Amino acid sequence: MAQRLTGVAAIAVLTAACGPGTGSGNVGPGTQQVTVQVSGHGAVQLSTGQQCKDKCVVPVPNGTRVTATASPDGGWRFSGWSGSCGGSGACQFTVDRDLELDAAFALVPTSPNQHALTVARNGSGTIRSSPAGIDCGSSCSAAFDDGTSVTLSATPDQGWRFDGWSGACSGSGDCSVVMNADATVTATFVAEPPPPPPPPPPPPAEECKGLAPPAPGTPNSFQMIAGTHWTCERPSVDGSGNLAVWMTEFLDWPSNDIVFLDAAGTVKGNVKEYPVFQTTQLTGQISGFEGLVYPVGQGVSTVVFAADGNLQSSAPDTPPSSGTSPKLAEDPTGGVMAAFGATLDAYDASGARRFRVQLAHDAAALGVDRAGNALVLSNPGSLHGQWVDHSGKVGPDFDLGVAAASFELYPRIGSGLFLLEVSSAGGLFQHTAWVYQLDSLAAAATPAPDWLASRPDRRLHMAHGGTAYAMLPIPAPGDCTKDIEVLAPSGKSCGSAKFQAPGSCANFIDVGYDGTVVQQLPAGIDAPSCTPGEPCRSCTWRWWPGFFR
């Protein structure tokens, strides 16, 4: 900050001329900055030849001896120096630091019964008088009649504060002067210290916080025993960790055996030899299970099972005839949707049908995103799509410009769907590739993100309540030990969990509604417990309750 000098004369060798307005110069090495402020009408003549009539800011070499002389304009008189010099005579000083000098000129009263009130300013602000006459800034002196009481108020500029009066007034409130003689008042403004810098931004959120999987530990397990013509089905898990596991028999009398378990593996209920002509499809709901069953001779029924196996709803239906198999998808907002040929049905969590709508083509794949909007894919020569929103409003059919192929649909975090292309590659086992994604209700696909496209032969499931992805290996011959990788929404890998099992497996490993990991073991690993001499097989499922909750 500039130091204000006190003395009889002021200013230094100036390297630039200083006239009306604000002058400035570049401060180089070995120089200081000197500021001259003129109040009223007059000029300050510097010994180096510069003249200041308003404000001058100039660089001055260190050690320079400078003289300043005040010259009032007509009708004005010099009333004195403040800041770097005092009094009303000549001003001299040696420059050894940044300095300031104020020169005040007062209006000469036009009547013998008037007195001049002159205001000098230190710093940056405005002083006004009542009655009017002084507005300093621009007018810093005025004549008032003898005996008049004049009140001065000071208003600091932004970034400054008023520090107080000196001369004819003191303190920091309004200044009152009774004009019995000429008077001079100095108002001092002090620069406010700069505000403290804003706090640094918080560190970026750690994407994987709370998502890194622990070691799996010991699973629970359950085994079912049946004849050699029974097949083991993929189980379903609800939002509380309850399981529905079942087997299907197609040779002698097509039927399902379904067992309902709690997370610890305790049997809560079962459905024995339920006659069907097609395997039951069940999805986990917040509590219990909902899906489709195909009773022999009865078409199809929408069923809702409680967690303990109690059949809460069974609604027989006659879907439109179609040459394609039904497509069932869980609705993340509750309930299910099912496509029968070119018809889409939506059911709420109680099993009641919400709507049935007609589609442009027979459904080849069905997916429901986390906003509850359904996308139906079809193959009328090329791959087509058609959205049906959660209320049942049918969108237009659109051509994705992609060759017809087999696809599966998986929800993205938030909304929208990923498209997974599935091919058998001429063998028994499938291969998969992530190829496209669609925003919710969008009529055009974009490429799958790189982090997903770089993970072929994987399916995905939501983890941690829809805040992460669990990448699941597809069934393939090889080691039964399976890795499940967890990804943040951006695709950043948060680590993998290894689920150990002996032997060779080609079965699914899945993640349930509540994050439970469940794996079906192959028949070769099962330990059948049969009547000696009776052909049989067993199905064994094991699970890690709430692992990705």
Characterize this entry briefly.
Strand 32 and strand 33 (374-378) form a beta hairpin. 1% of the residues lie in helices and 50% in strands.
Secondary structure elements and pairings:
Blueprint (H helix, E strand, L loop, with lengths): L2 E2 L17 E2 L7 E9 L2 E5 L4 E2 L2 E7 L3 E8 L3 E8 L7 E4 L4 E9 L6 E9 L2 E6 L4 E2 L4 E5 L3 E8 L3 E8 L7 E4 L4 E9 L28 E7 L3 E3 L3 E2 L5 E7 L5 E7 L5 E18 L4 E7 L4 E6 L5 E7 L9 E4 L5 E5 L2 E5 L5 E6 L6 E4 L5 E5 L3 E7 L9 E6 L2 E6 L5 E7 L7 E8 L7 E2 L2 H4 L4 E6 L4 E6 L8 E6 L5 E7 L9 E3 L5 E5 L15 E8 L5
Parallel strand pairs: 1-10, 2-6, 3-10, 11-18
Antiparallel strand pairs: 3-6, 4-5, 4-7, 7-9, 8-10, 11-14, 12-13, 12-15, 15-17, 16-18, 19-46, 20-22, 21-22, 22-23, 23-24, 24-25, 25-26, 26-27, 28-29, 29-30, 30-31, 32-33, 33-34, 34-35, 36-37, 37-38, 38-39, 40-41, 41-42, 42-43, 44-45, 45-46
Descriptive account of the structure:
The protein is mainly β. A hairpin with a 5-residue loop joins strand 32 (365-368) and strand 33 (374-378). The longest helix is centred in the C-terminal third of the chain and has 4 residues, at 450-453. The protein is rod-shaped and about 135 Å long.
